[in-house]
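Risk register update: the risk of archive-format incompatibility is retired. Evidence:
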Amino acid sequence: MSASAILPPMTCRKCGASNPVVFLAPVVMAGAGTYICYACARARRWLDPDGNLRTGIEL
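Archived output:
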């Protein structure tokens, strides 16, 4: 049996939220990380009604 992966402390690059359940575009360096949270992506209209990235959006 393998051990589960432990994520480092992470914060949203847009709003500063910490360690949400759903996030996009994670970047981890030197034991810490950043991401774009689902709420920020949705607020910026980067997601379609199903929660997928819209065509042409790259994170």
